[in-house]
Amino acid sequence: MMKDDIAKVYFTEEELQAKVRELGRQITEDYKDAKEDIYCVGILKGASVFYTDLVRAIDLPVRFDFMIASSYGSGTSTTGSVKILKDLDYDIEGKHLIVIEDIIDSGTTMSYLLKYFEHRKPASVKLCALLSKPSRRTAEVAIDYCGFEVPDEFLVGYGLDYAEIYRNLPYIGVLKPEVYA
Ligand SMILES: O=P(O)(O)OC[C@H]1O[C@H](OP(=O)(O)OP(=O)(O)O)[C@H](O)[C@@H]1O
Ligand SMILES: Nc1nc2[nH]cnc2c(=O)[nH]1
Ligand SMILES: [Mg+2]
């Protein structure tokens, strides 16, 4: 079973779902009077699971868009360069963007994407990240809605992968050292 590979559970399914509801309520409250269209932009693939839960906790007419960005290759450390493998489908000029991400670690991915979005002149951009690892930050990123701060450990589950596996775990944890061997 997949759980046999997990050394420690950091956030249970229940804890994650409670946080998602709280973030959804906060976003709903903050955008309830917005005049412009709201675009929820998910950064695939890591944000996929959090995204689909969070949008269902937002009680407003939002639109979906996705980007695919990758800076980690297949390992556990950032390559430092961000590749956009899929761009936005829509012109976001004058729209509200809520960028939805699983984790801000070094900040490399998001600092790059936030600059990229600003060039497209949206009405506003806010970032919602489930996890933040502040001790690892090399590029500054302001997180408007942050789920949890986490220590410097490589986490898997709820969208977060190791070598593309473990994204479908409904909880977040760390792997046993022998899994990396
Ligand atoms: O703050 P950073 O150090 O840039 O790390 C955070 C990024 O790394 C992971 O994505 P990854 O590039 O591994 O691709 P994935 O989303 O497809 O897993 C994660 O989903 C974030 O997007
Ligand atoms: N799976 C996973 N991907 C990451 N990308 C940046 N930090 C992490 C992490 O802790 N786990
Ligand atoms: Mg990602």
TrEMBL record:
- Gene name tied to this protein: hpt
Read off the Pfam families from this record: Pribosyltran
Q: Does the keyword Coiled coil apply?
A: no
Q: Which cofactor does it need?
A: Mg(2+)
Q: What is this protein called?
A: Hypoxanthine phosphoribosyltransferase
State the function annotated in the UniProt record.
Answer: Purine salvage pathway enzyme that catalyzes the transfer of the ribosyl-5-phosphate group from 5-phospho-alpha-D-ribose 1-diphosphate (PRPP) to the N9 position of the 6-oxopurines hypoxanthine and guanine to form the corresponding ribonucleotides IMP (inosine 5'-monophosphate) and GMP (guanosine 5'-monophosphate), with the release of PPi.
Q: What is its EC number?
A: 2.4.2.8
Q: Which reaction does it catalyse?
A: IMP + diphosphate = hypoxanthine + 5-phospho-alpha-D-ribose 1-diphosphate; GMP + diphosphate = guanine + 5-phospho-alpha-D-ribose 1-diphosphate
The record's comment on protein family reads:
Belongs to the purine/pyrimidine phosphoribosyltransferase family.
Q: What is its main location?
A: cytoplasm
